[in-house]
Structures are given as structure tokens and as C-alpha cells.
Amino acid sequence: MKHQEPPPEQESDPDGEHGGVLGSLGRRRRILVWVVAGAVALTGAGVVLAATIRSPAQVAADAAPPPASVLADRVERRVLTSSVVVRGTVAAEQSLTVSPGGGAAAASGAGGKPVVTRVNKQPGASVQAGEVLVEVSGRPVFALAGALPVYRDLKPGATGKDVGQLQEGLKALGHPVGKDPAGTYGAGTKAAVTALYAALGYTPRPADPGDAEKLQAAEDAADAAQRAVTTAKAALAKAKAGGGSDTSEAQQQLSFAQADLAKANGRLESARSAAGPMVPADELVFVKGFPARVDAVKASVGDPVPDGLLTLSAGATVIRSSLPAHQKDLVKAGMKVEVLSEATGLSATGTVASVATAPTPAAAGPAAGAGSGTGAGAGAQGGGSGENPAGGGQEPGGYALTVTPDQALDARLAGQGVRLTVTAASSGEPVLVVPLSAVSAGADGRTTVTVLGKDPAAVDGRRRVEVRAGMSADGMVQVEPVGGAALGDGDRVLVAQAKP
User: Fold this and answer.
1) Which of 22, 30, 86, 106 is deepest in the core (most CB within 10 A)?
2) Can you say whether the dihedral through the CA atoms of 413, 414, 419, 420 is positive or negative?
3) How many CB atoms lie within 10 A of CB 254?
4) Strand, coil or helix: 74
5) Cβ-contact 474, 465 below 8 angstroms
6) What secondary structure does DSSP assign to 308-349, as a single string?
7) Neighbour-count burial of 27, counting CB atoms closer than 10 A to its CB (0-12 exposed, 13-18 middle, 19+ buried)
């Protein structure tokens, strides 16, 4: 048999059948990559060319100004008010400083500086008419109702409005003054004063420590004059009974004696009128209304009496403020006021009671000119009370403003700062209002507003409406269409049009 050799092994050839397929795929990938790269390059070049090459129309459009912006606002129907807003302080209508002088110490025989011997009312305590506030050197200091301040000792025989005020205070406490005329300190007023002091537990001070001696001397003189008249009458009768024709001397002696008796009786009446109890200025405080309130006490029992021993608040609660010069003429008495305490959230209403016609002097400080009280007390005469009007909220150079609450204020507002909104003017009822800048005056003298259409920027959709302007406040003005023109709540009006 003939031997047959096996066929030789086939080797992988890159240029063979399999190698040809793989090479073809690689070439296709490279071609695709180049195509994509070329497309990206062409796109970038197109973008660059588009950014640098513009048509004439595009150039003109780019050079034109942007469209004008339109500012519009809505026509409203509401009550239009003009307000003045200032700060104020809640205070009593009257603030009194009580400073008893040296009369009490002199009356007690102690001499020297008076000493506090009892404090009946502590700070915050309520005070009623006829109550003793404090005792100084054994003498009382009490309060009665009255608007006039104490400025002198009230003694028997005195006359004046302050005496009439004392009489009214006595009668209010149940102590009548008899037949004394109003404003005359007579016998009835003496009796009433004596009764008041007895009710307080004290003995009234005499008008003059020497009254008893003077009265006794006047009575003795009157008795002597009366005896002289009696003697002269007897001598005249004896002369007539003796049959003597000349009785002229006896008659003359009787006339002299009768004249002396008339003078002695006059002096006795004067002494009796002047003698009796008085009400020292050291011991009396007149306040405008009750109950009053003790705000401060500066001394304790045993201490020398300082200046301003007691401070009282009295009268109705008011709110005090100060208006700057440019607002002074806007606020008048009778205007309504909204009161708000930001600290407590409490609110109230009030009425302007007064506006000062002159500014508060700068040298006097915040309280100067603020009070509606009646002036100083008896300080210059050694008296016991002086008035410091409550001036919270008032500033030097401003015009003092006083507001009266429509109803009693919450006690928590006492001494607090509050915001006052004064309604200086009001339309009274709802009216059409637009911003002030929406109203324009044309060359023809007509006042108009421009009502915008649905598209605020569309000029052809606008219409001009002639209006009559009314009051203005807070940047708004009342308008009323003229001649039946259409303008209503909700219309949009042109306020401004900004152009580049």
C-alpha cells in the first residue's frame, strides 16, 4: 500500500478571510469618527458666522430702543383720610407737688426744719376729698376739691375766689358755712373749718397766736366805753333834774362817751372777725378731681421734709403730645384721634382738646407749657403745694397737643407712651381715588387721567377721562368724572411711562 501524508495545518493569516473582515470594520469606524468631527467643526463655524454676520434689518432692530415700560395703578372707591401721626404720653390732667413749709413746725413750737411724723398715703394709693395725706410736725396735710391752687393762708375776714373754693369743699364734706356770702370767710366758715379739723382729729390753728389777748383787750375797751356812756347819761339826767338851765356840758360829755363806745364796739367786732381758726397753706392741697392718686413719697417718718415731699395726680386722664411746626396748623380742636399702645396692644379713641398757639420754650424742658392746670401753688408765700403740669410727650420747640379720651382709658396705660393718629381731614364717605401722579393737567386747562386698555402698552387702547380733583392725602387724590365720563372702581390708570 502507498503511504499518504496528512494535510498540513492551516495558519491564521491577517490578510486572509477573517483578517479582511476585521480590517473592514476598523476602517469604517475611522471614517465615522472623521465624519462626526467634520460635522461638529462645520456646526461651530456656522455658529461663529451667524454671530458675526447680520442682516441690515437685524442691525436696525438691535439699534432700536427697548419698548417703554408702563406703570399703572387701580382706581379705588374708599374713604379718603388725611392723618397726622405723633407720639404721646398718657397722664393725669393735673400733677401736683406738695412741699409743706415751716409753718407746721412753728405752730408746734418745735422750730427748725419740719419733720415727717406720719405718712398716711403710700405711692399708688387713692385719695378722696378730706383725707389726710401726710402729717408734718404733728399737723395734717389734707386735700379738697378745687381748680385754683393754694397760694395763701385762708384766714377769718379774707375774701376771694379761693375762699369760695374752700367753702364749697367744706360743704361737700357736710360742713355748712351758714349765712356767710360766697367768697367771704365769716363766722359760718369758721364753724365749718373747726368742724372739719375735729373730724380729722386735729385742732385748727388760730389765725393769730395773739388773737385771745387782742380780743380780750377789745372787749375790755368796749366795756369801759359802755360804762362811760352810762356815767355821762346819769350826769346829764342829774343836771336836768337839778333845774339848771345849762346842761350843754353834760350833753357834750355824753356825746363824747357815745362816740368812744361806737369806736370800741367797732374794734371789738374787727377783733372778733379776725380771730378764729384758719386754714394754713401748709396744710391744704386743692386738686381738680377725685379720686386723686399718690405718685411718689420722698420721705419716711422721722425724716426732715424735703422739697417735693408728695406728688399727686388728679383730674381726668389726658394724653399729651407735641406737634412740630409744620404740622401745627393741620390739627385743630375737635378732631378725632386713634390711640394705640404698641407695648400692650390696647387701643382707644379720643378728641383733640387743645393745640398750643406758641411753642414750648426750649429752656423749660419737655414739661414746659404742657399742663392745663392752674399754675404754681403757694410756693412764694411759703405754702404747701405747687403744680407741675404733666407734660409727657412734649418737646421743647414743639406745640403742646392735648387729647381727651372719649372713654376712660385702661389703667394699664397710665404713664405709657402711645401713638396718636389724628384725622386731619376725611371725605366722610367712599369716593373714587387715584395716585396723585395719575392726574395731569393739559394745555387746555383740563384735568384728566389716562385709563389703560387690556394691554397696558397698547397706546390705541387708552382713553383720557376728564376729572375734577378733590381732597388729597397720603399720595392719593379724590377724583370725580366730568360730563358723565366712564371711570369706576377697578379701572387701571396710567401713573407713569418710563422711556429709555
Assistant:
1) 86
2) positive
3) 21
4) strand
5) no
6) T-EEEEEEEEEEEEEE-HHHHTT--TT-EEEEE-TTT--EEE
7) exposed
φ/ψ of 497, rounded to 5, equals -130, 110
Q: What CA–CA distance (Å, rounded) separates 87 from 368?
A: 17
Closest CA to 371 of 358, 385, 387, 383: 387
Spatial contact of 485 and 466, defined as CB atoms under 8 Å apart: yes
> Among 385, 397, 428, which residue's Cα sits nearest to residue 279?
385
Give the pLDDT confidence of 403-426 residue by residue, as tens digits. 999 998 887 888 889 999 998 888
Length of the chain: 500
- Say which residue the cell 441690515 belongs to: 56
Q: Which three cell numbers stand for residue 62?
A: 438691535
* Other Cβ atoms closer than 10 A to 68: 11
CB-CB contact of 75 with 491 (8 Å): yes
Residue keyed to cell 365749718: 192
- With cell 350826769, the residue in question is 235
**CA–CA dist 439, 308 (Å, integer):** 61
* HSE-up (13 A, CA, CB side) for residue 210: 3
Measured between alpha carbons, how far is 22 from 467 in angstroms, rounded to an integer? 91
Question: Which residues are within 8 A (CB) of 78 and not within 5 positions of it... i.e. 6 or more apart?
Answer: 430, 431, 433
pLDDT band at 55 (very low <50, low <70, confident <90, very high): low
CA nearest 137: which of 105, 102, 111, 103? 105
Amino acid at 149: P
Which of 326, 320, 389, 387 is CA-nearest to residue 355? 320
Residues with Cβ within 8 Å of residue 195, at least 6 apart in sequence: 175
Tell me if the bond preceding 405 is cis, omega within 30° of 0. Answer: no
What's the DSSP call for residue 184?
Answer: B
- Taking only the tens place, the pLDDT of each residue in 241-266 is 877 667 888 888 889 989 998 998 88
- What is the rounded CA–CA span in Å between residue 323 and residue 394? 8
Using the CB atoms, write b or e for 201-218: b if 16+ within 10 Å. ebebbbbbeebeebbeeb
- pTM value surpassing 0.85: no
Integer angstrom CA distances of residue 54 from 50, 58, 62, 493: 7, 6, 10, 40
The DSSP code for 276 is S
Q: Report how far residue 132's alpha carbon sits from residue 138's, in angstroms, rounded to the nearest whole number.
A: 12
The torsion of the CA quartet 320, 324, 326, 331, rounded to 10 degrees, works out to 0
Contact 326, 392 (CB under 8 A): no
Nearest to 402 by CA among 410, 392, 411, 414: 392
Check pLDDT > 80 for residue 493.
Answer: yes
Q: Which helix (H) or strand (E) holds 171?
A: helix 161-172
How far are the Cα atoms of 243, 244, 357, 494 from residue 254, in angstroms, in the given order? 19, 17, 69, 111
